[in-house]
Write a structure and sequence with these properties.
Helix 3 packs across helix 4, helix 6 packs across helix 10 and helix 7 packs across helix 8. 32% of the residues lie in helices and 27% in strands. The longest helix is centred in the middle third of the chain and has 18 residues. By secondary structure, the protein is of the alpha+beta class. The chain contains 13 helices and 19 strands. The strands form five sheets. It has a four-stranded parallel sheet, with helices on both faces. A four-stranded antiparallel sheet has the order 5-8-6-7, with helices on both faces.
């Protein structure tokens, strides 16, 4: 019987490719990487099972390329996307090939913030009040519409970007005009103008009311339309703007159990409203608390993505060994750690798991190392000191010396990722903060 064969859809810039490839090897699954620049990825990854060149910048063309490869003799038992854009491509191609996936309309709703808000609002799922308009709208007319329909404070967002890129808070008319100008400049860059030529939504701006409260992230997986919550992360650092650079994720959440259950329930309502039925879900929500008790309206959905958590953050999660292909593998001490999130996603897509196993006990967390300022990275000091902090299990630097750094809201990446494990969320958070404090970054200002 042939091994299961999966097509991984990975953009060249994705952090995720290597971890998905490693997961496929541990599951003894053939992995074909579908990428826009396979020759570049081949320089850094040892592809055991080949690759497929795809035009990911043009989704319709990429779908045709996948279908042609399948009709030409390549067998794909599942298509697994790794980001928002490839989730849409995977949904269209899977429908053509008769493979399990989200409906293409639902995958696109998860990618387009306006479409998402419309679906949630129509279904009565709590989310911020919003309006949208084309980037070309006169600033005065835009401000007048925002003042009438939304009010201040408000948050501006590009429709098709992720990871807080281009997200800016405005507290009054003057700061709104400045934020809109900054967002317009970002969307006029060659990269994003090219995106808008393919999808006009790339030139639209969403403005929504600012939602106060704690922000949490839910990692889940849909099986037959039913949401299984895999982990709920607290974000201990306040995310109040003017920019929304995420740093700390810690699980399990320290919210009261009834609030956590409500977060899962609201997320499930959101996935149903959007039409999502299969595969991973990463959701961002705000929870308003007063004196430790959830206030009303307690929960608001900020984002729901049809993919796993971004960057390398999935490395925080390990799942209990039980039924499934990972239970019998023999990898020494590593086997005791249980399957990774990537293994779980691949296994569920291929039918290797009957149900998602629970997360392993203990606390875990990640710090996405923020970019402190624009410039060129000259060097990093204190790495060994950071790794020596009790509880730290990994420091992964993803930015190389000599690279140009661009902070949010224009930037799209972090310096790297710190990972910690411990007995409690408090211990994990403390370890991450101490380790970050030991790192020193030498950044030369741009001329």
């Amino acid at each position: 019987m042939p091994r299961p064969r999966v097509l991984l859809l990975c953009a060249t810039t994705s952090y995720r490719t290597e971890d998905f490839i490693a997961a496929a090897r541990r599951l003894d699954v053939e992995a074909v990487v579908g990428s826009d620049r396979c020759h570049v990825l081949a320089e850094v990854l040892d592809f055991r099972d080949g690759s497929l060149a795809l035009d990911l910048r043009h989704p319709d063309a990429a779908v045709e390329q996948i279908v042609a490869a399948a009709e030409g003799g390549q067998r794909f038992d599942a298509l697994v996307p790794t980001n928002d854009a490839t989730a849409v491509i995977a949904a269209h191609a899977a429908r053509r090939l008769g493979l399990a996936s989200n409906p293409p309309e639902a995958a696109y709703t998860a990618r387009n913030k306006r479409r998402m808000r419309e679906a949630l609002t129509q279904a009565g799922v709590p989310c911020p009040r919003f309006i949208s308009f084309p980037m070309t709208l006169d600033a005065g007319a835009a401000e007048a519409e925002v003042a009438r329909a939304i009010g201040y404070p408000c948050v501006l967002k590009p429709l098709l970007l992720s990871a807080s890129r281009g997200v800016i808070r405005a507290d009054d008319a003057a700061s709104f005009t400045r934020a809109l100008g900054r967002l317009r400049a970002l969307l006029e860059t060659p990269e994003l103008r090219a995106q808008a030529e393919v999808d006009p939504a790339g030139a639209e701006v969403l403005v929504e009311c600012f939602v106060p409260g704690r922000e949490v992230a839910l990692e889940g997986i849909l099986v037959g339309g039913q949401l299984h919550t895999l982990a709920l992360f607290d974000k201990p650092d306040p995310l109040d703007g003017p920019f929304f650079e995420e740093t700390l994720y810690v699980t399990p959440s320290r919210l009261p159990a009834e609030v956590q259950a409500a977060v899962s329930a609201v997320t499930a309502q959101a996935t149903r409203a959007m039409g999502l039925v299969s595969g991973p879900v990463h959701a961002e929500l705000r929870v308003e608390m007063r004196d430790g008790v959830a206030a009303a309206p307690a929960i608001a959905v900020i984002e729901v993505a049809a993919r796993t958590i971004g960057g390398l953050c999935a490395r925080t999660l390990r799942f209990s060994l039980g039924e499934g292909p990972s239970a019998s593998r023999d990898e020494g001490a590593g086997a005791a750690e249980g399957p990774t999130l990537e293994e779980l996603v691949l296994g569920m897509a291929l039918g290797l798991y009957e149900a998602p196993p629970p997360r392993q006990g203990g606390a875990a967390g990640v710090m996405m190392l923020p970019v402190p300022g624009a410039g060129v990275l000259q060097g990093v000091a204190g790495e060994e000191e950071a790794r020596a902090v009790p509880g730290i299990v990994e420091l992964a630097m993803t930015t190389r010396v000599g690279e140009t750094l661009v902070p949010l809201p224009e930037g799209a990446s972090y310096l790297g990722f710190l990972f910690a494990r411990g007995a409690t969320p408090e211990a994990v958070e403390a370890a991450l903060r101490e380790a970050h404090g030991r790192l020193r970054f030498d950044i030369a200002a741009l001329l």
